[in-house]
Amino acid sequence: xxxxxxxxxWSDDVATMTVDRPEALNALNVETLEGMRDAIDExxxxxxxxxxVRGAGDAFMAGADIKYMRDLSTAEAxxxxxxxxxxxxxxxxxxxxxxxxxxxxxxxxxxxxxxxxDLRIGSESALIGNTEIDLGIIPGWGGTQRxxxxxxxxxxxxxxxxxERLDAGTAADExxxxxxxxxxxxxxxxxxxxxxxxxxxxxxxGAAKGAIAQAYSDRGxxxxxxxxxxxxxxxxxxxxxxAAFVEDREPEFR
Length: 254
Ligand code: DAK
Hints:
alpha/beta
């Protein structure tokens, strides 16, 4: 399968989805999210036993596309949010294990895509965080719900309130990465781990994933987050935060 910005490749029963928009550090726009949605559907239709998620070039994904988002109205932000939630929900509900291979930047929506996967490994040079606050917004694709689960409430609040960017070692210490590998070994380690997962009994794997999901089946928080996120569009802080990024300057919030 091939979209302009998303590739799906197969190696035996392992499907690998790669976001390939390196000129924007794989920032997620409408085309990219639609490509991811289609690739996930194709991986599921092809009975993938593992879905690997990664980014091309120097980034996993540097977040949602700020240049696209900056002028969205609340209604447009809602539609945009549904598309992003569709991708993270599909990843979370994918019938087989999903593995995020974070080699480079994973900020904002990129961090949220990684957190929607079952397992995460990082390269030594990876940086990860929910950095949205400095854009005058909050994580909107599940970050407010999934980050506290992974790292605990206090750490999640510190990361989200301050927009912290964690290096790989700290991310592993906090529970965001299962393991950290040297940059030049990450491809090999990802393939090894994916093959190990693919060799496990698929019915039991699906049952384990489904049962674990029940521990987190309350979607009320995700719905709250969607509404809170969209409500920030059009506020002076959102306009200022995103304008400052595009104009390459520090934001001045009121
Ligand atoms: N969006 C658009 N373009 C981006 C981008 C992004 N997130 N990140 C990088 N780029 C672009 C840069 O603008 C630059 O483009 P040109 O100027 O060359 O045209 C190119 O990628 C290379 O970036 P830099 O020149 O900045 O490269 P550096 O190595 O100097 O810095 C960096 C890399 C990743 C540290 C820096 O680019 C950066 O801080 N990027 C922003 C990271 C960030 O804040 N990400 C969070 C985005 S907000 C929603 C729910 C959720 C979300 C949205 C909606 N709904 C419910 C509606 C999610 C929001 C986010 O993810």
